[in-house]
Design goal:
Subunit structure (chains A, B, C, D, E, F, G): Heptamer of 7 subunits arranged in a ring. Interacts with the chaperonin GroEL.
Family (chains A, B, C, D, E, F, G): Belongs to the GroES chaperonin family.
CATH superfamily of chain A: GroES chaperonin
Number of strands of chain A: 7
Shape of chain A: globular
Number of domains of chain A: 1
GO molecular function, one term (chains A, B, C, D, E, F, G): unfolded protein binding
Oligomer: homoheptamer
CATH topology of chain A: 10 Kd Chaperonin, Protein Cpn10, Chain O
Keywords (chains A, B, C, D, E, F, G): Chaperone, Cytoplasm
Subcellular location (chains A, B, C, D, E, F, G): Cytoplasm
Chain lengths: 91, 91, 91, 91, 91, 91, 91
């Protein structure tokens, strides 16, 4: 099953921030400080006014609470408009 | 009797999520977790600004509370603008 | 006396839903479940932006509370914009 | 003294509804049921976007509370935009 | 000193309504009933969207509370957009 | 250090109204009555929609509370859009 | 890792105002009076409607609370639209 967003919407998946210390110990408690990171899962076709600037796989920042949360096959996604994405994080 | 939506509106029918275990037992109690799935029942002609991107039979996600609930011949439908549909679920 | 709506407005008359049992008995108490049905009584000329899609006699669905109620010669009408009509019910 | 409304505004005068019984007795108490009827007193030149559809002398329906009440030479008028006029009553 | 309003603004001076009886006695107490009359004192150049329809000296009606009150050389003026002027009173 | 406002913004400096009596005595207490006067300190380049109508040195009236107060090198300025300037005072 | 803002957004870094007395003593307590200064860290490509007027390294003034705070690799940034930047401070 796949999700095809309409218009200038994208589907994103929130990234569970995991912090690893130098010794390799995972500190999940530190995750609370990065609530706005996500990965692009699907990109709509755009509209006459909006050209899509992101692609599947991009890591992005988005403002908390924007978009609509949906749950498909037990996984949680957020569907929002590209306008609500603030920036792409390049590695 | 048929419903013909005006402009860029569509008529959808909420999908009653039924969960079936491997042994085939239906678990209707699990239905509460997918409140935003629906099937397109009728599609308006669109407007000069909005081209219709969905067709009758599409399974779609829509944000809770959007649109207007109507009851025709004892069945409940929701009429909303295509803009309020978030994504199409492809099988 | 006739009502001529301006611009993209239409005049509608709420349909009093009457339920008839198989034996022909009218059950007006059941009427509360269809509050959004009406018949088009008059149609404005439209505007440069809005082409009229409904005609006099159409049975339509409209969202509760939209439009303005007026009383002319002891009959109640609702004047609203075509935009506020959700769909036409075809028989 | 005359009032010349600007742009797409019109000046209207609320019609005091008087009810006359068959025997000719006036029942002013019944007037409370028609609060939205008025006569067009003056019509603005319109704007580039709005062409005037009403003329002086037209009897119109308008939504209660729209417009601004003004008092000139002891008579009360309402100045509103043509947009706020719902329909013309034709006799 | 002169005031030059910008864009589609005008400067008006509220008219203190004075009522004179036939015997010539001024009744300033009656002034409370005409709070919306003013005289145009200065007219802006207009904008690409708004052509000025009033000229200095016009007596106009404006809706109470619109615009901004300013005090220059001990005189009170109101600066508002032409849009907020309802009508010109012609004598 | 200089401030360069972006787009259709201007930087203004509130004028401290000082009243001088004929004998030359300054009455700063009278200053409270002219809170909306300012001098233009810097003018943005304008935008495609907005052509700048004011120049550095102009004395202007602006509506109280509009714009954002900033403090640079211990001096207070207000940055606002030209749209928020009501009028130029010519001497 | 780099941040690439979308559309007409920019990424800024709040400047910690440090006050140095003539004798060279830093007075961080004085920092509270300049909360709106920042340095441009990244600039989006702009949109069809908005041409970018700032560049990386510009010192700018922005209105408090505008934009969204994000934290990347333990550093705090603010992402906002160029529209929310008031002025560039030139040295």
């Amino acid at each position: 099953m796949q999700i095809r967003p309409l218009g200038d919407r994208v589907v994103i998946k929130r990234i569970e921030a995991v912090e690893t210390t130098k010794s390799g110990i995972v500190l999940p408690g530190a995750a609370k400080e990065k609530p706005q990171e996500a990965e692009i899962v699907a990109v709509g076709p755009g509209t006459e006014d909006v050209k899509m600037e992101v692609t599947v796989g991009d890591r992005v920042l988005f403002s908390k609470y924007s978009g609509t949360e949906v749950k498909i096959e037990d996984k949680e996604y957020i569907i929002l408009k590209q306008e609500e994405i603030l920036a792409v994080i390049e590695k």
